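1st attempt posting a full record on here, be nice pls
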Amino acid sequence: MKKKRVAALVMAAILGVTGFSVPGIGVVQAEEAHTETSGDAEQQETNLAADRGSTARASKFLAASGNLPAREPGLAFDGISDNNGQADNSRWQSGEDAEFSEQWLEVDLGGTCVVSEIKVDFFARLYGDFRVEVSDSNSEDAVWKEIATVDMPEGTDLNLKKTVDVKENGKAREIPRYIRLYFTSGNSQAANRSIGVREFQVIGTKKSESGYETITGNIALNKTASASGVEAAMPNLTANLAVDGQKSDSSRWSAPTMKNGTSPNQQQTPQWLEIDLRNEVTNITSIDLYFYKLVYSIDYEIQTRADKKSDWKTVKHVTCQPGNEQNKHDSITDVEGKRLDRYVRFYFNKVNTNAGGNSVSVQEIEINGDQVQTPEVTDPAPENAKEAMDSVKALEAITVDSKTVPLPNMPEGFSINVKGSEYPQVISDEGEISDHNMYDYDMDVILEVVNENNPEDKAEKTFQVHVPNKKEKHAELYPEIKKQNEEPEVIPSVQEWYGYEGDVKLTENSRIVLKDGAGVGLNKVASQFKSDMKDITGMELEIVNGESGDGDDILIESLPEDTYDTGEEGYLLKADDSGIHISSNGYTGCLYGTKTLEQVYYTQDGTYSFPKGVTRDFSQYEVRGVMIDIARVPYRLDALKDIVKTFSFYKINEVHFHLNDNRHSGATTGREDYNNWKNYKGMFRLESKTFPSLKTDPQNNTYYNDENGAYGGEPQYTAEEYKDLQQFAMDCGMNPISEIDAPGHSLLFNRYVRNNIEEIRKVQGFENMPEDGIKSDRDWELLSVKGESGQWALKFLKALYSEYLNEADPVFLGDTVDIGVDEYWSIKNDEFDGMRNYIREMADTVQESGKKVRMWGSMKQYFDDKGISTKDYTDIEIDFWANSWDNAAKRSAEGFKIVNVDSFHLYGNTGRDKRDVVNVEHIFNNWTPVTFSSSGTVQPADPNLLGAKTAMWADIADMGVTERDNYERLMRQAAVLSEKTWGGTDKDQTYEEYSFKFERLKAGPGVELASDIPSETSLVLDYDFKNVKSGEEGMVVYDAAGNGYNGTIVNADVKEEDGKSWLDFNGEGSLTTGLRSVDYPYTVQFDLKADKKDDAQLFDGRDGRLSIGSDGKLKINRSYFEQKFDYTIPENKSVKVTIVGTPQVTKLYINGEFKQALTRTTNSETDYNHLLSTFVFPLTTIGNGFDGKIADLKVYDKALSPKTIKLAAEGKAVTEVNVAQDKAAAGTAQHKGDGNYDNANKKLRVGWKAIDGDGNTADGKHGTDVSEKDSFFEGLYSDSSFAVDMLQTSSIDHLVLQWDKAPTTFKLQVSSDGKVWKDVEGKTSVKGESVNTIKFEQPLETRYIKMQGVEGTFQLREFEAYEAVNKDRLKETLKEADDKLKDYGIKYGDDKYKDFFTAYMEAESTYENAYALKKNVDEKVDILKAETDKLENPNPNPNPTPELKSVTVTADSKKLKAGEETTVKATIDPAEAKDVTITWKTSDAEVLKVDESGKVTALKGGKATITATAEQGEKKVTDSVEIEVEEEVKPEPTPELKSVTVTAESKKLKVGEETTVTAKVDPTDAKDVTITWITSDETVLKVDEAGKVTALKEGKATITATAVQGEKKVTDSVEIEVEEAAVEPEPTPELKSVTVTADSKKLKVGEETTVTAKVDPIDAKDVTITWKTSDATVLKVDGNGKVTALKAGKATITATAVQGEKKVTASVEIEVEKETVTPTPNPDPQPTPQPTPEKNDGAVQTGDNVSPMMYAGAAMTAAAVLALIQRKRRKG
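the predicted structure (as tokens):
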């Protein structure tokens, strides 16, 4: 089996059960069924006795007793033979005899049979010896012939099963009609001596009297079926699917319309299905009809006739009541005469009126009986192509030497050919078989039969074929290898790989060798490859021409022929001892070979190698595209080139530029009034020389419109600029498709004509254009498609296209042009002809230039719904995007080429929750290019399916969307689209493994828009302005981070203030870095001092600006958005500013404290106060025009945590580093086969958000005031998991897991390769908390770590893995270096010691670096220590030290009081005298004492002299100072305490109240007085030591103060009364209102949703919520708000919130849609205008059934599919 085929079939089966299209799945089953009954093959043996119970007889049987039924002989032939349940009573039993007597059991087989064996299943121990006898009669005098005897054991074995071989001479035996078992003994070990038989089977075939074989079974299988018609919306669901052996949602007949709505008594239109059985069918045991969902028939007839001239005869009439039974099964066992003639017709009078669908749909019809296989049955002459195709049951096996698909011989008048192939590089669409596939393939091919007498009569069928590998034919490529290298991990995964042993290592001498045999222009390939390799490796690879290369070279060869059957985009890459060799017959194939190499090298660091082996790599589908709405988001050309380059990295081959659009209005009235459109902007990005003023409407933003700024206003590409972009795309292997979308989305065109009519009239041919010449008379967003205005609109668009399609110098360079044509809102009957004419005319205009035409799929609206044929339009390729607008299966069947751009799977729309980005996990697990949302089945081998494309729209770009925001999503969408469309995904590759691959690759090499700044550590830039030096280029500040990003200072000075070095810009200076920006996540820290409040740029560059506004507030500019932080920078005051940016939010910290987050808080699309607020931080220019100072600038490429930011602000060392942030994350949230994939939470709450740095604030908060609303990963199942690849082995000290919702339990796992995981000991059942901090006894050494859910779902805000970092040794090394500098007298920055000062600067930076790892610290310690050791004393032979001459002593104070201190100082002369020691001495130790540092203490009154002795060698000099200590003056007597007076703030209290008592002493200057308080009644009042009194209960009490001074005590009191008062409870917030929301407001019958009630205020207490439904027949709701849809209709769910007597209510209306089989055309020719979702949103109009529920049968269906897959391909 080809590796991806199994998974595709399993998922197709699962999706089939849920109502989705199931492409190709039926083919496998159908072909197996064909094989079993094909042609002249030997008839399959069956149980001839099955269901023959009515003919059974026995010697006797056990009668009924009590609740037990009779054990009659017929029960041995009912097919029930298990050993429990109903089988206990489903048996023949002769009796309950104490003594044995001979017994027999007989059955009538209905005729002569050919039998090979019989099988007997006994009951309990009731068995015995028996013989098998046969007879041609069962009369009393019948003669029975013995054909076998069986001896049975006597014992206690239960329920024995016995198989008896009755063959004769090794061949099946022919026997007459009757057969019986004749028992001659019983079992003595049994409870009685009777015989009990559960089942008696006779295995063989029937033989007819005519001599032809008789088959028994489902006679209808694969017979020719026809019908009254097919449902218009599902033309592929034809009658033959009802007899193909499959019971699935996608393999069924769907009839034309029978009813309209659900009215029970309406008149219905009958429909019929007819089967040609080829001969009569007899002995019918059952006719089984399997209906689809609710669309079963409640009144139908089974009719039969012998030939087409005869009248139909009804043999059974079936009726039932309308109901809600899903997938109803009717089994009819009483057909008249138990026979049918050759033709049988099922005439359906009525369909179930409870169903939403309007016609019967039948999954399968089975007619079980006997049929004689006459030649007319086995080999009928076909009447048409379908019958001729039906005669092909299987294909001959393909061998290793087969060159083409072996086609069967066809009846005269019919031809057969291969029409399509699932893998065209294995079997071409013409049927040629590759000689180079290295894998076995089990794959689909489509065969087509053509009626040569009527070439319009065609039929096709899909077959699965096995293609063996060809490795044995190319032994030189596939030598026997013991231990093969694993397949390289790239996106898209390679198709075929055969590993050798060892690697090809890249060296500085490696070359790019070109051999351009096909002349495809390999120089361009080599130039790109060289540039990318320089970016990846730093190596400059030489490009040379040659025939071969050396062992470390890369040879790129273009081949004149497609030697290896890879196609022009495929390639063969061989890596061995001769080097690396890429070969292809196409430019793009050679380019893609280099992309595979680049991806492997891109994930390596330092050593670059490629595993030896060979890959034959190719794309399964022709188109792998991405559409970009470049109209509504302003993309600059360099950004578009970056995006295109990333697409090339992932082998995308089509880039679609949507050039024009406008902001959409959802208004349903007033659309014809221009005043209602004034505020809606229109966009057209391409310069027009014909219509010069046709330009995008401008934005009102000074920064954005600055001609010299980063944008220079709205991007408007000149013809040359746009051609350059397209040529760049073509060089990158992409076909650029240009789209001008009209006649919808055309506001700008209409506005242009309105405002510039005179300019237009200057154009030749437009002299007479009326002022409103091209617009629709009912909507300014639409061009006219009718009347004179419609002709002017056509002429206008043709003129525009002609300018761009000029064959002499075309502006549109790609081979395809898209004419748009989607979403012409609420089209009217008089506009349909004009719309169809517009499509044809515009297509012709494009084709006249030699280009192909593409359009958005809209044929259903403009053609199908009006009954108009599309046959004249099949030359247009269709981008299918929504089943409400088109039908992919129908278009393909009609011959259109189609591209899958299904909005429900493949649309992104930044900022729009449900469309923000595609559901990548679902796409990887479940989607393939044949997956369409309810649009019929398209086969994998269908040659009309070109491939798939993902789209990135910009409906709500005004909500803060930038080109960088879109790029983040585009790269994710492009990668998974390519992975699934290239088709190389291994069936055992997990989404977790894919996620790791992508997160390691991301944007790829050579781009700037989202590129990281290369850096030794996560500290990218560190400017300490003490590291400034003047040089040839002016003043330079050195990058202390060690990355070499030194800055250039212009007109600014360094000043020392507050102990640090500041760069003073003085309003005139600036600092340039040579860098562009730092991409998120990042942290930028700097000290800021603004000298005055004024507009000033702080940081400016290509991606935005951080500045101070005139109001002093910090603000950011990006694109045309300006946002302010609510923080005012103080004047002349230093503040430490920290800006943290993540892919979700931009945060501001001041002095280490969080201030504000700029972010989106809800899913509102018009809350312009809360925009998407990502900010790529500009670094190009700093301080331009800023009147102020900046110091200590640090830039990190990580988002520092609040804790780390706080430590940095306090100048403290950070000793733990989160090594998980911004690495490779893999969040596995969903299960394979999940429905509800088009879900906002599944798209937004993805794995990488748990390591983006947007975690809790310091106080643990993570609300929308501090963080983005969906900034977490959500595990939807208890076994969901989150894993991180830290990209290198790390030493994990502890983990911190921040939860929004913690799981009940989880476990931790580690891995060395990201594939095999093992549990962490002691961490297999961790209980979830709000924050889990998990410390390890010993550091965990691992590269990969996983949180594996065990119980409970979860929401993981941030996953942090910390490495402990000790910086003590670094601190000591810095001190040692400092000391040596001082000892040697070396001045800071001396050029002579450049290496030392570089080491010192970087070591100091590392100490302050909040993201320095242990290895970084150790490295800097070693370097600085080595440089310090190299330092030598610059004066090894110093001059003689100056001789000490004198010393002078001074005292800070010469008069002291006892107990006071002063300091004496000694100053030597000369001051530079070295090796001088100072000693101190007092003349009177009782008066003064002095210590060695010169501190003097006064002890008592008197005078004393302090002498300093200075010594230098033998030389001594002294000096003294006299100090007087004043006599102690006795203090005046302390005033004696006389009294104390007590007062109270309040003398009346209520229970629970407090007051304060105060004691005032007399005299007030009395010293050393203490106050104590007591209460006379502690039960009434309590008083604390501070005089705070608390009332405890009703009563009176006295509070007494006692004042004490020495022995003296005085008191005073105050009486306080306490009144009784009811204790007032703390006021409970009063309930104000309740708001009700529903997860879904539209349901189908049987679906569920949840309603949620939110009370205001949210802290209201004691509130109960009850739920009620307005119509319990439509919806039911339980106490938890779970709502279940019961039938179609609308009902209101009401929540009542009660708080005491207060009640408030709120409601939500939910609609239950009718159950529909498929989207049904609207019969109303004039549909009521409704607000229709934009195409870009992917939403569809009411009535489209595009999201069916997942049913429990999905797993069973998947299992059934797997059971059918017999052959599986193993890699290698």
